[in-house]
Design brief:
The chain is mainly β and about 400 residues long. It has a 16-stranded parallel β-sheet, with no helix packed on it. The chain has a three-stranded parallel β-sheet with strand order 16-18-20, with no helix packed on it. The protein contains three helices and 23 strands. The structure holds zinc ion. Zinc ion binds next to helix 3. Keywords: Leucine-rich repeat, Repeat. Pfam families: LRR_14, LRR_RPS2. InterPro entries: At4g27190-like_LRR, Leu-rich_rpt_typical-subtyp, LRR_dom_sf, LRR_R13L4/SHOC2-like.
């Protein structure tokens, strides 16, 4: 059995201690004597099952990282860490949090992703400074966190109804299905086709936090995304299994601050955009069935368009009519053959064409635009872009590391 020796623990002036990925089975209780310690990381110490009670003596501690350790429970003394601001318990074996956690009065961030924790203790309401909570399931007591600004949740597909959310919330990320309405039949039968004779009962009583600024949501049917708060600037919508069409776009039309829209892993064959007057950034990604994008000319303020990993895409209609466009990225769309009328885009400054094997030739572009071409076999390679491709950069690092 290997314990961290007393010698390390005698270093009273130590401010940061990282023992990541070690075969530690325990910490000596004298760790509590490193009174100057502000950061302790035991990340990846799989054999570490518990912390000594003396951990509560680390009154200067600001960051405690127990991510991916074998920790099964926290000592009650954890609540004595009055200065602690960040605690990561992600992928630990902790099943529940005890009331003592309510003593962490300075806590700003709490990560519980990958744990079995589904409910929060009543004392969570004492964490008045908590701004960011990351966990797998939605706890029903979430509205007690009166300062919460960011909430990241995992799969909540069993959730019947969205609980009342803290009004302070600005960033919300979650997977929904039943929360947003229930469906008569499963949608998996029709990939990208229109639903026929299905009964949809959409939930209309969702109360979104009034200051919500960004929402990332996975949900089967976007038609149920109604009454989104006026404050919304960024919407990321994914895993949609019904066609993206009316009334989805008209549901967004009144969001006058919404400048960023991302659609990812949507099952539509065609997406036809309709008037979204404030939209500046549009990303369409990983839509494997998508054949055609159209209606882009109705996005009058669009500055940046990114389309990537849409392996069946053959056409982006009316691209030349998106007069406001300044940046265009087409990446890993292996079936697209041509991009028409780019010469009409007088404001276009940057064109990135990466990994598009079927592109027939470099499109005509305005003189002021700089093209970055990479791994498009029929276009030739521009030399300075290699590092700009994340994919190749990462695979290169893998080779270096091997
Ligand atoms: Zn590349």
């Amino acid at each position: 059995m290997f314990f961290v020796p007393f010698a390390i623990c005698g270093l009273k002036r130590l401010s940061s201690l990282k023992l990541e990925g070690q075969c530690i089975q325990g910490l000596h209780s004298s760790i509590g004597e490193i009174v100057g310690l502000t950061s302790l990381s035991l990340k990846g110490c799989h054999q570490l099952r518990k912390l000594p009670d003396s951990i509560g003596k680390l009154r200067s501690l600001l960051i405690l990282n127990l991510f991916d350790t074998g920790i099964t429970e926290l000592p009650d003394s954890i609540g004595d860490l009055k200065k602690l601001e960040k605690m990561n318990l992600g992928f630990t074996k902790i099943m529940e949090l005890r009331n003592s956690i309510g003593g962490l009065e300075s806590l700003l961030e709490l990560h519980l992703w990958g744990t079995e924790i589904t409910e929060l203790p009543a004392s969570i309401g004492f964490l008045k400074r908590l701004e960011c909570l990351v966990l797998a399931e939605m706890p029903t007591t979430i509205n007690q966190l009166s300062h919460l600004r960011e909430l990241r949740l995992g799969d909540n597909r069993k959730l019947e109804k969205l609980p009342e959310l803290p009004a302070t919330l600005k960033h919300l990320y979650f997977v929904a299905e039943t929360v947003l309405g229930t469906r008569g039949q499963t949608s998996s039968k029709w990939m990208g086709e229109s639903p026929k004779g299905e009964e949809w009962s959409l939930s209309t009583d969702i109360t979104w936090p009034p200051q919500l600024w960004s929402l990332r949501i996975s949900c089967d049917d976007p038609r149920s995304l109604t009454r989104l708060p006026f404050s919304l600037c960024r919407l990321e919508l994914g895993d949609v299994k019904s066609p993206i069409e009316q009334p989805f776009f008209s549901n967004l039309r009144y969001l006058r601050y919404m400048s960023e829209l991302t659609l990812f892993r949507c099952w539509s064959r065609e997406i036809e955009f309709e008037l979204l007057a404030s939209l500046q950034n549009l990303t369409v990604a990983e839509c494997e069935l998508l054949v055609r994008l159209s209606g882009l000319s109705s996005l009058g303020k669009l500055k940046e368009l990114k389309v990537w990993n849409c392996s069946q895409l053959v056409e982006i209609q009316d691209l030349g009519e998106v007069k406001s466009l300044m940046e265009l990225l087409i990446k890993s769309c292996s079936t697209i053959k041509m991009l028409q009328d780019l010469s009409k885009l007088r404001k276009l400054q940057i064109l990135r064409l990466f990994h598009c094997e079927s592109l027939q030739g470099l499109p005509d572009i305005p003189k002021t635009c700089h093209p970055y071409v990479h791994r498009c076999p029929m276009l030739g390679e521009s030399v300075d872009n290699y590092k700009a491709c994340e994919e190749c950069r990462n695979s290169d690092m893998d080779v270096d590391g091997a």
